[in-house]
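Quick entry between incubations.
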Amino acid sequence: MERPAWAPRSIDISVPSVSRMYDFYLGGSHNFEVDRVAARRAMEFMPGLPKIMQANRAFMRRAVRYAVEEGITQFLDIGSGIPTFGNVHEVAQQAHPGARVVYVDHDPVAVAHSQAVLEGNDDADVVAADLRKPEGILSSPQVERLIDRNRPVALLLVAILHFVEDTDDPYSAVAELRDALAPGSLLVVTHASYDGIPLPQERAEGTVDVYRNIRNPLIMRSRDEIARFFEGYDMVEPGLVPMPKWRPDTASEDEDPYSFAGFAGVGRSA
Amino acid sequence: MTAEPGGPEDRLRRFATIWSRAVFPVTSTSLTRPDFEELLLPLAHRLRDALRARAFDAAAAKGIGAALIEAHCTDPEALSRTLDCVDAYLVLYCGDPDAPAEAQEALRTRCSRLQHAMAAGFAEALRERTLAEQETISQAALTAQGAVAHALHTSEARFRAVFEGAAIGICISDLDGNVLQVNGALLRMFGGSENLVRGRNVVEWTHPDDAPQVWRLYDELVRGQREHYHVEKAFYRPDGTVLWTNLTVSLLRDADGRPQYQLALMEDTTERRLLNLRLRYEATHDALTGLPNRTLFFERLEKALAAGEGQRFGLCYLDLDGFKTINDSLGHAAGDRLLVEVADRLQSCATAPGEMVARLGGDEFVALTTGPDTERKVDELAGRIMNALVTPISVDGRELTVRGSIGIVEGPVGERGPAEVLRSADITMYRAKSAGGNRFELADPEADARAITRHGLTTALPTALDRGEFFIEYQPLVHLGDGTVHGAEALVRWLHPQHGVLGPDRFIPLAERTGLIVPLGRWVLEEAVRQARSWQERHDRSGPLRINVNLSPCQLTHPGLVADTVAILEQAGLEPDALCLEVTESALIGADDSLLKPLRRLAEMGVDIALDDFGTGYSNLANLRRLPVRVLKLDRSFTQSMQQYPADPVDLKIVEGIVSLAHSLDLAVTVEGVETGAQAEQLRILGCDTAQGWYYARPGPPERLHELSLLDATG
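Done. Structure below.
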């Protein structure tokens, strides 16, 4: 008998995955040919895409360290993808041994990979869940085990919100998470935008088209639209800025121009 | 780390800085450039050591190349830039500027060989890492697929369990109707034989009871024009019995929306259907006789009366004569057996299409015939019914003769409703019964109308008394000797809200039949006695005025008659001898002592008893002695001829004889219906004592009598 209509579809690795493309941009080999084809196509329009990803990783590294400095030792990283290097648990546990991390992704391959990477690490785990359904994340056994909801949490939404369309109401999902976490929690966000891309918009739209074609639309939002995600949060200095400008360790003259695309920011909930 | 400016450490640091500046832009590291430089510094140390080592150590150089991969410098450009940097600056910053030329040359050669080994180490590590990562991601994909497959398997197992364990029958077939899969419940419904269901085509599953739309809905579904349909459908089981189902068929589409399968869900309703039919039968049939009951009869009659133009109907309404007597004397069980036999006989009378017999309840049956020719057929039907009852019915060894009265209604359909038709039949049946029974009568609109009015008056009577719709008129009784007002007769009237003033002949018989005559009669007596007392108070000079009140046969037998009368007289303060109760002659025919006893009691108290309508009841004149009567009221038929002059001599002789007889028995004689002076004079000559009639006064309100009496007193 054929697969009945009500059964879930199997993993189709002939379809590009944004997390494996992300890994490819970062020089990794956790990807398949379809992912590389799509990623190279996107890079035809924006050759500096890897630099944007690199800037994302660098920002996340600084944000995690900032959180630890602020006394936060539990992290919820939604849209974690395929953790190749410089991951939240590496950075956090280096800065504060025993820091707890829960990764969340809805790509079953990314989740399986994370499970392999995190094997033996009692303070980190991964949940197969979807940002669009926060209740599924918050009620997961992994979150219940590792996250103390009475203490502040650093919620990382790095390079994920621009994959949630308005029809799925990302603002409500973010608000629901905010309400579920203890006061003093940090919201760490990076988001794609046409602002800061050192190319004419029409060209950048070519990249957006690639993502639309692989059924993973990339939603470019304006700075104001991105700022709305921080409703209920006090922005941490220097506010919502291009990634290299958020609390840089060194002068930013070394930075690639592409790394100024999009916005990054951290907010602290009241 | 501090280093002496220009010293070896400082020079090494400067090499590392140049190296990191060259490579950083092509790395993917999340480190900052200064951090990255710190990462390269130990590698620079190892490079310097390898450059200066006595023997060439390829492994050390390879390790440095591999270390670049670990630092996430996986881009080949990173190697290229590294080698450029080593080639140009390693000997310069890490060599010995003071060494002789051949030593310098040896360092350059060593540097070249180091680059070759570094490249090999980089490539080897990159290859290892690539393979490892490919392996990891493939494993992850496999694991994920396994998890999904497991979830799918679990889900499929769950659905299979649902499919197999469902209590309703499930059948999946393709769009051509070929059965692909059925579950156990469906097999059981069809009798459990698998090969009779599997491999078959659903379009073969027709049944004569299929509703017309069943297969049209099916065609629409398989063509993709309909998503589902729901019908009640019968199937043949392999053994030929019928399976009734509630059937829901849905169209299953593939992921792209193309019709793919049809899914049938069926619920076995055979038992429920049988039960429904049984309940329906019980609700529409009489438990005793098995005949259709009132409910079913009304349905049929309603249908018959709604038939098309040119159609007629005929209805026989049968009520057994004297059935109550049989029930009372032989018991209900015998009565029931009689009814069953009657039902069987009736059933055999109405066997033609369009005919039916039903039991409405008790001993009431109806037979219906329909068609264009019921004028003839209904007569025949009634005849057959009467005939069927002729042969006595044997119950408990007794031969019972059963008779019935039938009311027949016949007519074109579409004019009357079932209730109206049945009422007319009922009225007609009663007409047949009051005409003596054992006959049938045909409905007649006028007789119906009379009966309906009578019925309306009967039902309105009880409330009429409560609402005070009755009133009393008084007709004077005049002394023939001196022309004085001697008293008055109380005559009750009904001021009906619709019909106006009604005389006693319109409602007294009805009141007697319903028993209302007792309270009504008591009310009349109270009113009249009270009125008589009030006349006396205002008019005592002319002696006591008497009051005559009619007493119905029903009141006569009422046990409270004497006590009520006494109480009423006492309450009003009227002497008993001021009251005269009028009783019809017919009520006293054949009266025995128990009936006369209350009258005697009243007479002993001083109440006068008058024999009303005397001369119409063939009474035994000798009997008059026995009766406690003081007055004879001569029926108006005797005096009618005296209105003309000369009067009929025979009538004169009769009246003279009666008066003489009465006087010899010490009875007074009153005459009614006196309309002329000649009449009055004649009657006075004949010796009658008192008279009433239009000649003196019509019945009227009490004040009129008072005035007459005053006139009489002053005149």
